[in-house]
Amino acid sequence: MHNVPIRWLLLLATIFQLAGCSGMGEKVSTGFGLWGGKDTGEKPAALVEFKPTAELKSSWQERVGGAGDTVLFPAVVSDGIYAVGLEGKISRFSADTGKQQWIIDSGRKISGGVGADSALVAVGTAKGEVMAFDTKGQPLWQARLSSEILSAPQVANDIVVVRTGDGRIFGLDARDGKRKWIYQRAMPALSLRSNAGVVVAHGAVFAGFAGGKLVALNLATGNMGWEATVALPRGTTELERVTDVSSLPVVDGRMICATAYQGRTACFDIASGNLLWARDVSSSAGLAMDDRTVYVSDTRGAIHALDKNSGASLWKQDKLLARQVTAPLALGRYIAVADVQGYVHLLSREDGSFAARIATDGSQIGAPPVALNKGFLVQTRNGGLYALTVQ
C-alpha cells in the first residue's frame, strides 16, 4: 500500500467515513504512515553527484526477518543490539562486532519493533499483545492491550510504556506485565496510521497525538503534566484538517520539539510546556536535535536546519525530494538520513551539503538511524541490519 498516492488513500478513508463506518475515528493508512516520508506518487529525485568530504563504511551487517508493511525499530542498549523480523524471531547482536549472541522465536508476528533496557526486552503485535523477555531471551510475561501496537515499547524505571493504535498509552509493571496506569484521549474523525510511539526522559513520557497535540505524562502514575499545541487543524474538510504529530518528539535538558503533518514544527519548555518558537515546516517523518540546531525531514523529503534558540532557518537540502527520507540523526559534524531505496546519506551540519552516501540492500529504510558508540545502525525493510561508521 505504501506506493499508493496519499490523496487517494485519504479520499478512500473519507468515503468510508461518510458511509458511516467510523465509530472511534478512522485510521488513515497513508503512503508514509508505516514506512517513513510522504509518498505523493512522485518519482524519487535522482541521486545527485557530489565530491565526498567523508566516507560511510559498513563495519558489519547481519540479517533479521523482513518487515512487510510495518516499520520495525531496533533497540540499542549498552553493548547489545536487539532486532526483530515480522515473523517474530528476535535476535541479540554484539554492537561492536555484529556477532549474533542469541535468537528466539516469539511465536507471534511483530508489528512495532523492539524496546529494551539492561534487564528486559519487549515487543508488541498487531493483535495488541506485549511480550517480555529477559536479556538472555527467556520469556517473562505476556499482556494483552486494547488494540494493535505499531511502535516499539519503551522500558524505563521498571515500567514498560506501550502505545496502541486506538490512542491509548499503557504503563505496565516490568516485573509481571500488570497494568499500572492508562492514558487515553478522544481521537478526531480522521487520523494518520502512525508508528510513532513515545519518548521517555526525565521521569516523564512524551507523546504526540492526532489534532497536533503534544502531552507530558508522569512515568510513575500516567498523570498528565501538561498539554501543548504543536499545530492547529486548518481547512474546511476533514482531509484538510488532518494535523497529526505522527513522529517522535526530541528532548534535551531544557526543551522538547515536535513536528506535525500539514502543520508546523515547534519547540517547548520541557518543564511547563510553554511554546518557545514555531516554524511552518510540516513533517510526518520526524526531526532531530543537537546542541545548536533542530533538523527536520519535511513531507516532501527536504531536510531543514533550524536555529535551536529561535527557529530561524539556517539551511535547506532539497535534493532528496520524494525519496521518503527518515527522520535525521545528528552525528557531530554530520546529519544522517536514509531513504526509500535503501541509501543512507550523510550531510554537512554546517550547510546541508552532501558529504557521503552508501547503499544497503535496495529496500526502504523506514525507522530513523539509531546511534551506536561508534557510528549508527539502520534496519531495512528486507531485514538488513547495517552498522555504519563515518570516516
UniProtKB/TrEMBL annotation:
Keywords: Cell outer membrane, Lipoprotein, Membrane, Signal. The keyword Signal applies. InterPro entries: BamB, PQQ_b-propeller_rpt, PQQ_rpt_dom, Quinoprotein_ADH-like_sf, WD40/YVTN_repeat-like_dom_sf. The keyword Lipid metabolism does not apply. The gene is bamB. It comes from the Bacteria. GO terms for cellular component: cell outer membrane. One of its GO terms (biological process) is protein insertion into membrane. This is Outer membrane protein assembly factor BamB. Residues 87-317 form the Pyrrolo-quinoline quinone repeat domain. It is found in: Cell outer membrane. Pfam families: PQQ_2 (PF13360). Belongs to the BamB family. It comes from Sulfuricella denitrificans (strain DSM 22764 / NBRC 105220 / skB26). Part of the Bam complex. Part of the outer membrane protein assembly complex, which is involved in assembly and insertion of beta-barrel proteins into the outer membrane. Coiled coil: none annotated.
